[in-house]
Amino acid sequence: MSNFWLLKAEPDSRIVKGKDVKFSVDEFESVKTSAWEGVRNYEARNLMKEMKVGEKALFYHSNCKNPGVAAFSEVSKEAYPDYTAWDETHPYYDPKSNKDSPKWFMVDLTFKSRADHFIPLSLLRFISNCSSASDIPEKVAYIGEEGVRAIKSMDLVTRGRLSVQRVDETAWNTIVLMAEKGGWDALELDKKMPSTAVATPKAKSGERSTPKTRAAPARTKRATANTKSPKKKPVEDDEEDESDVYQESEESSEDNYEDDGSDYGKSRSKRRTSLRGTKRKARGGDDDDGDYTGRAPRRKSVRKN
DNA sequence: GCCAACGTTGGC
DNA sequence: GCCAACGTTGGC
Question: Fewer beta carbons within 10 Å, N or C terminal of chain A?
Fold first, then answer.
């Protein structure tokens, strides 16, 4: 069976080590096929290693003014070493990776089509914050309760930082339907949004910090960072081997395809106090299979400028 | 630009 | 192996 995925790319310019790492849907559509280099997060990398040729993937614009699903694509080449990690001048250079034992991998994705209606993250969040079917905007009521449930369970809304995610079939079908039918362009809701709650149990009142459910993650984008001083050892993985893939990217930019400009709610909870120490463990992994995370890089293009 | 979320480092 | 400090991701 085939899996469905979601890959992020940054549509806005961002200079890293002198090079622009942006990769928007416009560029993707024009180049058609692109290697997803730059992913430096173990969990994201491991997911890429699972990708098979022909599997479908959502192309998501991230770290931009209007983040959301912009296009549909397909895996056109399974995981292979991300050689950009060996290039010292590359934004995502990782001194710990080398040709003999590549630490990072990438896949090639081929552009298939644009979403007729760009699906903003704000809408997906809004839907995922609806507690009952009656809260769902009529304009998108066609996704049904099943669609709502599927969106609520997406990593995109439950753990935003992973740059390469798995998408279940129902969620995939729901996104495809929404991209096809749209309907929210005129919505204006905003008022509701329960705030960031959603799937993870967040403890509100008593709070504890530890969210037990979450744990790990991977970040996405931004790359490497390994340039810092050599600190400790990462748990990476490296070795593992065997197959795995990896990828990533993000994008965004202004696009509003369709409009959307609306925000279906925003709200973030504020609560600061860091809960940081609470536990959390990593997900990826190191080694093999694990998942873990590393950081994922952005994607492609390194253009300079 | 702010800052919540969370992965990573690294002392112990 | 635990966990506090630190650095990043990335939405807003």
Answer: N
